[in-house]
Amino acid sequence: MTLIENTPSSLDPTIEDRSMAIRESLRNAIIDRRLAPGTKLSEAEVGALFDVSRTVARAALQMLTFEGLVKTERNRGAFVSNPSPEEARQIFASRRLIEPGIVAAAVDRITSDDIARFREQLVEEERYMNERGPAARRAEIKASGDFHLMLASVAGNAILQRFMDELVARSSLVIALYGRSGVSSCGHSEHFAILDLIERGDAKRAAALMLHHIDHIEADLDLQPKQGVALKDALAIS
Amino acid sequence: MTLIENTPSSLDPTIEDRSMAIRESLRNAIIDRRLAPGTKLSEAEVGALFDVSRTVARAALQMLTFEGLVKTERNRGAFVSNPSPEEARQIFASRRLIEPGIVAAAVDRITSDDIARFREQLVEEERYMNERGPAARRAEIKASGDFHLMLASVAGNAILQRFMDELVARSSLVIALYGRSGVSSCGHSEHFAILDLIERGDAKRAAALMLHHIDHIEADLDLQPKQGVALKDALAIS
DNA sequence: CCCATTCAGATTGCATACAATTTGGACAGG
DNA sequence: CCTGTCCAAATTGTATGCAATCTGAATGGG
């Protein structure tokens, strides 16, 4: 019996669906800020870019719309989300609610292997911090978010992990729009401190520091309505 | 200038999309237990039922898949979700994390108008409780979930509200599969008690009671793997 | 009698064609 | 010059057709 299943490129097991692959690709482009908020994502254009029909491109855009990374207006098309200050506040309020619990769950489940992987990740994060240039900045933002996602993964709750996927991605958009300094420099050392507390099994302090950390991230934002956005929203409301 | 927009049936403003309407309809059928877990939802069948093409039906099923109410297997089709005991535990763990925070937020924002609406809702819930028959049971389950959703709506965070939409709907599926007594009778009185504490502004006790309430709901479950499900999962893993 | 193979029917995955809607500009009137 | 109307190009919404895949029963061999 021969293995007819030749598993063409199975690095990621979830690339069963081409629309899923496109979603991932666009997702990364959005959270990396290669696609700016407000950018139009026409079905034909996306389809041509990935060499698929509009049907598949449309499915990918629908998924991103569900995640809140893309906003579609009927008969007008899909655009990279342009979160309002109010949306930004809600995103961080949600994170304040969820992440301390994730940290507490991670304390109970984390292994020494996990901790080693976390340290590697934090070292990489540090490396990008010391580099210059927009590419390093993008990588730094991505790595910073990945810390929170790894934590969610260790916590062992697939549902919360999915919620965090969404919240971290949308946070990245918010920081791109309203961030004062790109990335708060204290964030990185706080990641280290949180990991230390988790390693020591101090769930209470780890959760408290995570709360503090989220406050810091949000404090670095300047949540004033952007001119263009405000105008657009006003038109949408009237 | 005549109003060409004749707004045919605009009770729900979000029925701009036919696929959205189908999603709502199927969603209600699933959480009402008119569609049992495991039921196959073929694109052609759904399309014929709602008099749309497979394209539109497919979009609705994709949305439900994203919400976790439907599970689709590639080249096989979509089925009403059959949550495993582990999934059930994760759903309730998520609710324990999120709902106390929602209650606390609701305390700060609730108006006397809201409270009146809540009391109406609870009276209706009580009415269904005293009725007999499967239709009343379905209505009771729905009403019981609606209490939690109204709370999320009052809390004023659209993101958390969407998370709760998903969690409550999936909880309904879990209760249908693993519920010992259908609906725990103490749940209703706890709803009243929670509302009272919210009205008095006692956020701490209200949140604590909500936690207790969720524990009660989960305690009423018998989270043993169902035979058929276990077999199916075993095949999927092997 | 049991088991592996094959094949037809059914269903999904995807592409394409057509209808409906929006948009921006041309154009006529004030 | 400004304004309102109308139309054509472009884009989305939807239906449908074809290819790929799965399922389950019929069939032939052991």
UniProtKB/TrEMBL annotation, chains A, B:
Protein's UniProt keywords contain Cell inner membrane: no
Annotated SUPFAM superfamilies: GntR ligand-binding domain-like, Winged helix' DNA-binding domain
Keywords: DNA-binding, Transcription, Transcription regulation
Entry annotated with the keyword Phosphoprotein: no
PROSITE patterns: HTH_GNTR (PS50949)
Domain called HTH gntR-type: residue spans: 16-83
GO molecular function terms noted in the UniProt entry: DNA binding; DNA-binding transcription factor activity
Protein name: GntR family transcriptional regulator
